[in-house]
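Note to self: the last two entries modelled the partners one at a time, which told us nothing about the interface. This time every component goes in together.
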Amino acid sequence: MNSTLLSLTIAILFGIGTFLILRRDIVRVIIGLGIMSHAVNLLIVSTGVFEGKVPIITDDGGHGAAEATGTVFTDTLSQGVLAPVLEAGHHVDFVDPLVQALVLTAIVISLATTAFILILAYRIYEEYGTTDIRELRRLWG
Amino acid sequence: MPFVLAGILPAVEKLLKDKIGWYASAVAFLSLLLVAQAAPEIIHGETIQGSIEWLPSVGIDFSFYIDGLSVMFGFIVSGIGVIIMSYSNGYMSKKEDLPRYYQQLLFFMGSMLGMVFSANTIQLFIFWELTSVTSFMLIGYWRNRPMSVYGATKSMLITATGGLFMLAGFLVLHAITGTFDIPTIMHSESIKEMLHGHDLFLAALILIFIGAASKSAQGPFYIWLPNAMEAPTPVSAFLHSATMVKAGIYLVARIHPIFSGTDAWFIMVSGIGIFTMLLAGFLAFRQTDIKGILAYSTISQLAYLMTMYGYTTHHHPGIGVAAATFHLLNHATFKACLFLVAGIVAHETATRDITKMGGLRKEMPITFIVATIGALSMAGIPPLNGFLSKEMFYESSVEMGHLLGGPWSILIPALAVLGGVFTFAYSIKLIDGIFLGKRPSKGLPDHIHDPSMIMLAPAIFLAGLIILFGLVPSIPVHYFVGPTVSGILLEEAHLHVKLWHGITPSLIMTIVTFALGILTYTQYGKIADWQDRFNAKFPWISVNYYYDATVENAKNVTAKFSNRMQPGPVKTYVVALLLLVIAMFAIPAALLATSFIPQNLNFDVPLYESLIFLFMVVSALGAALLPRYIPAIISLSGLGYLVALLFIYLQAPDLALTQVLVETLSTIIFLLAIVKIPQKFREHIPASTLVRDLLISVTIASIVFIMLINATQGIVPPFESLSHYFIEKSLPLAGGHNIVNVIIVDFRGYDTLGEISVLCLAAFGVYNLIHSRGDDQ
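The predicted structure of the combined assembly is written out below.
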C-alpha cells in the first residue's frame, strides 16, 4: 500500500515534467525530461515497496534462504509453473529488490541521455545561435 | 547456383576488369549444362523431384520438380542467357557500371531458373517476385533517365501487384486442396475432380490468371511492357521478349493440367489472349520506335500463346498445347534475334526512330540478312520456324472453332487470321523501314557498318536456329516440344510437324493472311495516322491514362497524408503522443469508472516524509518556473538530492547512493553546458497554448495519480513478483548479501552490460559533438 501523499507527489512531478517538455526552449525541455525521469524512477520503486526491510541479507547463520523468506520456490516445468509462488500467509522480509535494480540501471542511463542531449543543445546553440525549437525549424526551412 | 556466382561477381571483376561479361556468359553456360544434364531422362518421359525441408510447420518444402516444361524453359532461359551476356560485351560501354549490370542479369537468370523448377506454389511465388524485382532494377538501369525510372516503376507496380494476386490464388488453391505442392495436385485425379467442383474454383483460377496476365503483359496489363523498353536492349531481349514475360505463359502451362478442361479456362485464357493479340498487333502500327514495335509484337505473340493454351475444353486437349509450346520456342528465337538486331541498329545509327531510317541494307548487309530472317519468321513465311507454329496455330483455331460449332467455327479462325495479318504487316514494316527504301538525307551518321562479331555472332546463331528449326522441325519437336507437351498433358505425346502436309484449311488461311497482310501493309501509314488522331481525340480510351492518373493521385494523397502526419515541429508529435496516452487511459477508465475511485487512502505519513514531499514539489516548481537557467538548474539538482533522500525512506540505500553521485555529475554537466548558452530566449506563451498545455499536464498528472493509487487495490489481479526468486537465491547461488547488487552484476549481468554500452555510446556521442566544432572552424 502506497502512501497517498507519495503518489500525489509523483503525480505532480509528472505534471510539471509534462508541462516543461511542451515548451519551445530546448533547455526547459531537458529540465522537464530530468524531472520526469525522477518521477518515473520513484514510481517504479514505490510500487515495489511492501512491508519489509532493506534487501540486504545480514543473517546467514546456517539458515536456508527459503526458510528465511518463507517462499516456496517451485519452477518445475512439469507442473507448468514458471514463476516462484509465495504461499499464503507467509511474510516477506525484504522490499522488492528487483525494481531497485531496474531503477539503478535507469538512473545511470538517464545520466547518459541527459548529458548527450545537453551537449546536443549546446552545439545547436553554437551553430544556430538559438535554443528556440520553432526558430530552429525555421532556419532549417 | 547463379546466385552464388553472381555474389562473387564483384570480386571476379577486380581480376578481369573489362572482360567481366565473359565471366557472366560462362556462368550462364554452366547453368545451361546443368539443365542439359537433366534432359536425357526428361526426353524419355520421366520426371525428377527433390526437396529439402524448409518450413515444415506450414507444409512448405524447398522442392524441385523437373519435367519437360521446366527443362524447356530452363534451356530457353540459360541458352538465351548465354547469348545475351556475350552480346552485352559488345553492346555495353566499358564506362558503364558493368558489375552491377551483370550481377543483376545473373540474379534474374537464377530467379527465373528457380521459378521454372519450383515444385510448390509458395516457392514459385518467391522466385516470381524476385524476377519482378530484378527486372525493375534492370529496366531502371540508367537511373538518371526519368523515362527509365517511370518504366521501371510501372513494371514493378503492375507485375508485383499481379504477383500478389497470384499468391492469393495459390492460397485459395491451398484452401481447396490442402497442399502447396504442384505435382501432388497435378497427378491426383481425385483432387482435380474435387477442385473442379469446388465453389472457389473460379476464384482461384481468376486470381492466379491475373498474376500470369500481368507478368505476360496480357489484357489491360499490357501497358508496362512498352515502357520497359527503356532498359538496355540486351535486357529487353532477354527479359522482355524471351524469358520473363514468358513466366506468365509458363504459369498458365504449369496450371494447365490443374485448371484446364473447363469453360472458365477457355473463356478467360483464350478470350484475353485473342483480345490482346488483336489489340497489341493493331497498336504496333503506331509505333515509330523500333523497340516499341517489338514490344507490341511481343505482347501480341504472347497472346497467341495464351490463346493456344486456352484452346482446351471439356477434356479435349487438342493440338493447341503442342502448337503453343512450339511457338513459344520459336518466338524465343526470332524475337530475341530481332531485339539483338534492334540493339545493333540503335547502336550504329544512334537512334531508334524508324522514320529516320531506311536503306541500310547496303551498309549493314549481314545485319540486314539476319533481321530479314527474324522478321520473316515472325511473319510466318515458309520455310522458317515461325511458319510452322503459325500453321499449327491456325490448325488449332480451326479445330477449336469446329468443336464449339455454330458461328464460332468461322469466327475463331477469322480472328486468328486477323492477328496473323497484323503480325505480317508490322514484320514487313521492320524490314522495309530500316533496311529497304532510300536512305534519308539527314538524321543518320555518315558511316554506318556492321558491328563487331561479338554483337553479330549471337544474332547470326539465332538466325541459324530459326532456319534449322524450320527445315528440320523434328529436332526441336523431339527434344523439346514433345517432352513439354507430355509434361503439360500428363500423357505421351506423338507429334509430327512437317513443312508440307497437303492443302489443309490452315494452309489456305496462311495464304489469305499473306494476301491480306500485303494489302494492310500498303495502308500502314494511314492506319497509324488514324490511330494517332484517335488517341489525341479520346485520351481516356487508354489504360495508360488510368494508370498515370492512379499513380499521380496516389502520390498526391500520400504526400498530403505524410504532410499531415509529420508537419515538422516536434512539439506536435509530443502533444499527439500525450493525447494518445490520455486516450489509452480514458477509454478503460470510462468503462470501469466506479472501480477507479480510490478506496482507502493512506495519509498516515511521518512528518519528515511529508516535508520531503513538499520540498520536492517546491523544487520541481522552481526548476520549471525560475526565469533564469542557473537557478532553475540548482533547483533541479535540489530535487535530485531530495529524491535520493526519499530513496532512503523507501528502503533503497543503493539507489540513494547512486542518485547522489549521478545528480552531482549531471548538475556539473548541466552547469558546464549552460554557462556557454546565454539566456537570450524567453518564451512568451500565448494564453491558448498555456491553457492547452496546462490541461494536458494536469490530465497526465491525474492519470499517474489514479494509476498509482489503484496499483495496489486489486484492479490488476495479484500476481507473484519475480523478486522472490532473487531474494531466495541471492545467497546460495551468488554468495552476495546485497540482493540489489547481486541482481545487477549476477542475475541481470547482461542488462548492466547494456547499460555500460549506453554510457559508452553517449560518451562517444558527446565527444564527437564537441569534436565536430573543431572540424568546422
